[in-house]
Amino acid sequence: MTNHQKRLSAPDSWPVERKTETFTVKADDGPHGDAGVPLVVLLRDVLGYADSKKEARYALESGNVLINGDEVRDYRRPVGMFDILAFVEREEYYRVFPDEGGRLALTEIDAESAGSKLGKIIGKRQVAGGDTQLNLHDGQNLLVEDASEYGGDDSLVVDNETDEIVAHFPYEEGALVTAVSGQHAGEIGEATTIEVTPGSGENRVEVEGVAGSPDFETVEEYVVVIDENFVEGGLDDDAAEDADDEEVSDDE
């Protein structure tokens, strides 16, 4: 198989220029499926910490680049939605978050926030022994004894060191959400109406915009529940009160 990816056919979420070169790096298999961006793209094209793939590989050999708390040396390692990228020596920390148009972008966060990551539940099933396995959007699986409080499309905050669930945000009307795909990607608001569509049609969500985002409507698959820490500068007083009430050159 080829180790290259044509820029023009790269996923829309990849933050790469389309017409400057023919090829970019192809991501390895791993978290986030086809939507995962190779780490080298963030290091080179987004942050400018490397001018070439060779420089990026050299930098990763230092062991000072972490993703979700784990040391990473593979420049093709896929990085995706809500991953935490840490540069130990620089004391810089970023969360991968959708930008306008659905491109992955990096939001700078503090060291404390970098200790955990957000995951959307996309499935749950019983496993041997009676525990329940929660399947998250990035491929991580968590085992819990009692899954009665967790529903599909809920969001969890997971500690990067212990894999323990440290916060739970139910998917429900009144929840603070963001769209991670589609024409409203990157917009944030309160889910005012969740419309369940009979049959095989997509459920739809009506969202009242906050933090400068307009009102919008999108399909349920594109929505992820977040908390006010994901809003740059925090929510304004009225929005915060309402939320409390409802509880991402050449490649050779």
UniProtKB/TrEMBL annotation:
- What SUPFAM superfamilies does the record tag this protein with? Alpha-L RNA-binding motif
What residue range is the signal peptide?
none
Q: Name one GO molecular function term.
A: rRNA binding
Renumbered residue ranges of the record's region Disordered: 231-252
Q: Name one GO biological process term.
A: translation
Task: Enumerate composition-biased segments (Acidic residues).
Answer: 234-252
Recorded hits in PANTHER family, A to Z, give: 30S/40S RIBOSOMAL PROTEIN S4, SMALL RIBOSOMAL SUBUNIT PROTEIN ES4
- Mind telling me what this protein is named? Small ribosomal subunit protein eS4
Its lineage opens with: Archaea, Methanobacteriati, Methanobacteriota, Stenosarchaea group, Halobacteria
Gene that encodes the chain = rps4a
